[in-house]
Structure formats: structure tokens, C-alpha cells
Amino acid sequence: PLTEIVFATFNAEGYQIEALQKHLFTLISERLNFRDLLKESIISGAENKLEENKEENYRFQIVNLNDEIGLIRELEYTRLIVDLNPIANIYTQIAGISAGIPQINLSESEYVTHLQNGYILSDLSEFSKAGHYFLDTLEHWNQALIHSIDKIRQNTGNQFVQKWERWLEEAKSEQ
Prior knowledge:
Layout: E1 5-10, H1 14-31, E2 38-43, E3 54-58, E4 60-65, H2 68-75, E5 81-83, H3 90-99, E6 103-105, E7 118-120, H4 127-135, H5 138-154, H6 157-174
GO biological process, one term: protein transport
Organism: Streptococcus pneumoniae
């Protein structure tokens, strides 16, 4: 399979990345075989093509994104966004919508709607089901793309202005 997983963090400190890497390696060693996750072995720039000069690349990596441009670049080859923070990162959600990428989150927002352009987990045990929902066939993934286009329409132009006017009216009436 050509599947790769990128664990992306945003402006993480070195110790946070190390902790993630340690946790990830522990999970993999407990449940999987590292050889199954091997993408390729390449001979590094060494003069001798000896076994000890081999560099192994796996089907997973940890990336620390430092700015929004890095996030946009990373989304170019992304098929599914997973944000398991209690409140998902709004910029990531908007970037995902703009790229038409379905999202798995822990809470619904105005940008991600369950079984439309995303999957809202009621419990982490649903994660596998959510991943299969978007990755097993193109049907749900394509539907998510269509719903993302609708979300873009709802948040641009006159519809966006009307939404702001409604919010302002609601705020006035609550006072």
C-alpha cells in the first residue's frame, strides 16, 4: 500500500515532539511490526554500500509545522485530517474545507458536520470506524468534498455577510 501517516504538530517544542515520538514508537512496538511499516531502505551518501550505511524510511513521520504555509503544503497530499483536540483547530478546519479534505474530530463545529464533510467521534473507540468511512471507498470521500464546497459557499460573499448580520442581531437580543 502507498498509505503514509503524517503526525503533524503546530509550533511544538522539542520535548513535545520527543514525547510524541516515544509514545508512537511504544504503540507501534506493542501492536505492530516495524518491518511492516517500512517504506524503503536506501543507502545513505556513504562511499561503501554496507548494511550499516542503510537508512530506513517508514510509512509514518512526525512533522512540526511552524506556519500556515507549511500546513497548506502538507495538505496537498492529505486524504484525511484527524484533529483529536477537545476543540479542533479552526485554521486547520478551514484549510481542510478549502482543500476538500474530510476531517475526524471530537466535537462538531460550524465548519465540520458529522457524516457530511467530517466524522464527529462520540468516543475514541469509533476512530477505526471513522477512518474506514472515508478511506475504504471514494463514495464518502467525494460526498465530503461536495459538502466542503457547500461550506465554502456558506462562508463567502453575501451569505457570509448575512451570517454575520444574524450573529450581531442575536448578540444584541441577548443583551
